[in-house]
Acyl-coenzyme A oxidase (Leucosporidium creatinivorum), 1458 residues
Amino acid sequence: MSPRTPAPIEKAAPSPRETMAAERASPPFDVRRMIYAMGGGQRNVELKEKFMQEIERDPLFKLSDIHDLTKNQIRERTMAKFQSMVHYVVNERLDVFTKRMELVGIADPAFWTRFGVHYGLFLGAIRSGATANQFSYWLEKGVLGLNGMAGCFGMTELAHGSNVAGLETTGTFDEGSDEFVIHTPSVSATKWWIGGAAQTATHCAVFAQLIVKGVVHGTHTFIVPLRDPKTFSLLPGITIGDIGKKMGRDGIDNGWIQFTNVRVPRAYMLMKHTQVTREGQVFKAPLAQLTYGALLQGRTAMVADAANVSKKALTIAVRYAAVRRQFKVGHKEFESQILDYPIHQRRLLPLLAQAVAMGFTAVQMTAMYESLTAQLESFGADSDEVETKDVLDKLKETHATSAGLKAFCTWNGLETIEKCRASCGGHGYSSYTGLSSMYNDQAVQCTWEGDNTILTLQAGRSLVGSYSDALAGTELPGGTSYLNSLPSILTISCPSDADTLKPETIDNAWKCVAANVVKNAHGQYEKFVKEGKGKEEALEMCSQERFVAAKVHTAGYIYRQFREALVELAQKEDPSNGVVATLEKICALYGVWSIEENAGYFLKYKFFTPEQMDIITAEVNALCLELRKCAVPLVDSFNFSDHIINSPLGVYSGDVYKVYFDRVRESNPHESVHPYFDRIIKPLLEREPLELDDAEEMELDEEIAEMKSERDEAIKEAKAAKKALKAKA
Amino acid sequence: MSPRTPAPIEKAAPSPRETMAAERASPPFDVRRMIYAMGGGQRNVELKEKFMQEIERDPLFKLSDIHDLTKNQIRERTMAKFQSMVHYVVNERLDVFTKRMELVGIADPAFWTRFGVHYGLFLGAIRSGATANQFSYWLEKGVLGLNGMAGCFGMTELAHGSNVAGLETTGTFDEGSDEFVIHTPSVSATKWWIGGAAQTATHCAVFAQLIVKGVVHGTHTFIVPLRDPKTFSLLPGITIGDIGKKMGRDGIDNGWIQFTNVRVPRAYMLMKHTQVTREGQVFKAPLAQLTYGALLQGRTAMVADAANVSKKALTIAVRYAAVRRQFKVGHKEFESQILDYPIHQRRLLPLLAQAVAMGFTAVQMTAMYESLTAQLESFGADSDEVETKDVLDKLKETHATSAGLKAFCTWNGLETIEKCRASCGGHGYSSYTGLSSMYNDQAVQCTWEGDNTILTLQAGRSLVGSYSDALAGTELPGGTSYLNSLPSILTISCPSDADTLKPETIDNAWKCVAANVVKNAHGQYEKFVKEGKGKEEALEMCSQERFVAAKVHTAGYIYRQFREALVELAQKEDPSNGVVATLEKICALYGVWSIEENAGYFLKYKFFTPEQMDIITAEVNALCLELRKCAVPLVDSFNFSDHIINSPLGVYSGDVYKVYFDRVRESNPHESVHPYFDRIIKPLLEREPLELDDAEEMELDEEIAEMKSERDEAIKEAKAAKKALKAKA
């Protein structure tokens, strides 16, 4: 053994604040202009900043303590927030208020949900399903201002979610009393997951099978009072329970409802599309599918939300990675910032590019939805055939596009949050660093408003249809217009290695490969149909291929939306401010990284050679390294206040350890009496030292031996006595 | 408008119980034999069943209520469980007890953690770091039976996790008093995440920089008393706080610790490997890396745990999918079981195959670790050079293998839980269905005991080294032996389309592609070294390539382990019971599905043609369809009691809706007084109807007009007065 050569004491590294300041020293773009570019222009940015300031100063929007509130505390706070928000919903222009709620949704997803249940789902059901007179009636009852009523939305049942047509609850017309009888026939028909039902709703929009004169007419909507608004006691025939703890969004009180022969006036069935007369005649309007337009609003909003939550998570992860130091590499003076590690850049920067891409896509998606809404509003009984076809086409395209985007963007958001959380190492596991609850809140976005897997299959089904249309010579609009170039689009490829990274090559790559996977899904479908399968069964059998088609198509769609937005931006942005140039790099990273992620298809359809795929991978590495230099100014450009970020690891200043330490200490004040020392720990530590179980200690064998000898003795004695007796006889 | 053609009322589908019974009617294998095959043989299975019965009857292991306990309640229950478990740890053979804990870990991961902190980390640190006399001392103090002491493990700090060498806490030798002074120099040096520190530990194994005579000697371990075991009051110089809420595992009380000039006797430094004499001389033993062997136990256990949690999650998802019905396809009589949808099979069955593959791999990994341990125990000062090289080689291989397996298996486990949760639709979001807390508990497995990303890079670094060795002609053992076939292994390919699915083709595919990605990582590394980069920097620069190498290598490794286990099993299993035949299908599914998942590499290195990849995809579909038929008997073969599964959706009987409904109702009893109606809801609903803000209502303009006319009047009067005055003058 020999004395070890000692290491010198290290020179202290720059402080986190100093490190963070250095990251912002020379951004390659004008940060304010970038904020405008990513935030939809100066006006929208200023509105957002106004909203951020307002909610930061509103004590009900305190966010720092949310991780330690009980379920009831957080539900109570959720309802308290209605007070100020109702003011805005009544007074603000709809487009302004929509932006306000977009922000509120990032800060407090559970409140956004409770609010959306009343204004989006309940009021939305009335708006789209009520006749003019019915609508006036509910307005007068107070639905708009939450006066005397708060709504919930009774669609899903314990045993039925996605298949609305299969719901079991019944709404039976009683001609005698001119009423509907709403009834839950079995436990599995219990209305389930109903947000607001457990504690906060007075009325419910109930989806039930309309039964008139013994005939079932399918699912319709009935407004059913649940509670007396003055006392909140349940009305006769209403049984309600609390769904209790959930993975996330505990601020919303989901409940279950059973109806036992509950009677409502006939007028409480929403009758815009189907009418039941006093005599029990049932009339149904054509084009009922136009009402589905309303369902698309939620999906559209969720695309924007997915971009926003991704940006929020990335702000935390990138800022933390910029100041966290770990390991010295080679002869460096200090431990390295973890953002300097290529693998860490790989973990975060492609996701950053994807978040920006989703952000620009969301703007286009919103515009598409708004244009559809305008068209639907001007559509009426006097519209001619051309207008009808037009609006139906638009609806179909908007539906398919929003289905694919909702699914893949909410999945992307969830994955981004998880990867950001894991990139923070152990600290990502603390509730106070915010990413774990973001994950738990986001998860449900992938399930509700159309389960993601089902939506991808709908998008895939639509693509199979588009492929048929294209083969039949129909000119396809918008997102699927690349199929107009069939069949040549299927067989194009990268002209040469030198062309690999050109934007038009990347663009063609996505179009070619998307066309091929769509062709594959279509081909499988046709094959099964030719084999004699029914249409639905054939579609089921090619569901994996439909899924792949939707996945590749949507990734390429997002890339194109990003590119188109940049073309527009380049027309108004001064090139010297570096905004467009930087965004072009981000767009390029999104393009090449998502090609790498889907490498199998690009090789299979021979758009790229293996050598070109190496060029792609090298470019991902190079762009990560390039964007790493401005990663902090980029997340600064996402423009979230520290209050909205609500994570010590993501504070603007970079002073992460101090803020984190203070937050943990403040959230867990010293308990002067140990909660369970006397009851549990003291008896545990003070019990007698354990010894090995040892049956011998009981001296059982000695005992048995003793018993045996006693018995032997007794037998001997008995024998002797017998003998003596015999002898006597 | 015309009356709509009504639909007939549907015939009721078979009940969930009936549906589940039908799934078990004719399994293609002997379920009990399958249980033995998957569970490591009859003896292990019977032990597991004994443990399951014991904990099910232990009231402390009640699991049905865990989702509604507060943090302190769940921590208290965690500590109460020690009482019975200490009995077993002292009385049971180590191998039996290890199996017991493997099961307990699935039922209650937080207890497993608290228990492991004392017995695995704290006692483990003493066992591997103490001299013989020191070890006896701590045994006598009561460390084995938890008498008068409970330990925690003070490694990580607020600003340092993975880089143990960079820890800031100091242990300075004071020659005057023959003591060490343990000190926390700054907030960022605060010991952080220390499990057990917040409320339950009396002693801590503190990692600190050893400083003797002003010279830093690197990180060493000191046993530091924290609390008086009689009163639990903190000892002088100890500051402790609670880390509070975490993403999961709230049963363990993580805390932070600051030491302020805390003095411990010199003998409290663990001195097996480094000794500090009374006079302040420091001696260090060679081969200190042998102590790292102890670290591998945790990783090895986590591979088995990843397989187990995956199987538990899949039991829930598969049983639920078997009884859940949604949508009618074509002319079917009833709504379809969702497990009958090809896309649902695709979501679950490849993950089932992966879980089984990980299960068999874990058995082999454990055997490798145990053989290393035996070798390390027999290794001593008298071991010769050959023995030394041998044990170091073994250590290196076990380290690299366990690093890759720990990382990818814990990630696989996390992903499996999430996909199972999402596959349950909305109900997956309820806490009571169990998958959300499984996710939250599992997430940390990817970070602690070696952050997964760092471990993959270590595995990748080892592969780069193995490639160099192979080029130099060294014969490689075990998992990397395919590199002995360089260079021919790099360029083999599938001989023909007809050979695509042969097991030996799949096996060669994995070897070929793994060899290529390892070669690629090695080549990048060599390139950077040739360009003049230092070794560490060159390794960093090829980290993405190392990551890919580790990923592909490990997937192939798992496939081979599975195959080898089947060869062994085939020798002892009666072919007529169907066990091996079914497992071969599962192995085949794992093989082809993971090829499909990594398609890009198999195409890039031209092992398969695009057409052969289509054959692979078709085979994944076909095997999913095939295994779907016995999916329920397969998850039955995972052999978990309903108590361990702890999810209404995964009950053996299939009666999911009743059990789920009852669980939710029992967990959320009716509250007779609404917790916040009077305070929040009543004032909200009863306030005056809101009106649009309207400044005119204030009649400000009239007021202004009035004020103006008054002022005009006054001016007029003043003028008149002036005029009159003037006239007078």
